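pasting for ref
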Amino acid sequence: MKAYKKAVLTLEAALSVPVFMIALMTIVSLLFMNRTGQRLQALLLTKAQEIAAEGGIENFTDSKIRESIAQALPEPDTKYIENGRDGIEISGPRADDTEYIELFLSCDLVPMSDMFGLLCIPYKRRCLVHAWNGYDHGYFGSGEYVYITDDSEVYHLDRQCSHIKLTIEEVDREMIDNMRNNNGNRYRSCGICHAKKTDEKLFITPEGDRYHNSISCSGLKRTVKAVRPEEAGGRRPCSRCGR
């Protein structure tokens, strides 16, 4: 009888120990998979910022971006990606939008102990950054500078001035006829998105005089640049922040 119990315990140990070890390795692997995902996300953001700083996307193809991110990933992290560095896929940036850099990354994360291929976690990340629109002739670390927009007649001393910082509001379409901007003027239809009072959604800005049917309308976008005062092109000071 004792020999039988001993045999049973030996059999249970022989079966439970490997299962326990596999489970433990899987849990540890999940932690490393999370670390790999965080590093991929950081590399994606860094690459998007690099593209934005270059001021264009002409020299950045999907394959070049993927290769750059894959090579920058530490070797230990590649074992938690199915097919290693070759398992990373990149799409973007879009050539039809010069104001934003948008990148997509996808891969499948796997643990080291997943010997039977039962655990495969799809990993997808999206990164959106604003294209660089600052000082065109190089960064200056000291000295006075002002803020301008391409179509403005004034320059601003405060980047947060309400004349250049747009505040977009969604409004009730039935109330648009009774609304006035900060200057007391009525709102009219935007000539770009051709908004109508019957549209489902309408958007306005307190400083503007047009209503829009899409928050992505270019009439709601404003490119602000930081330049030296002598490069303001004869613009006069803003009546609000330039005093």
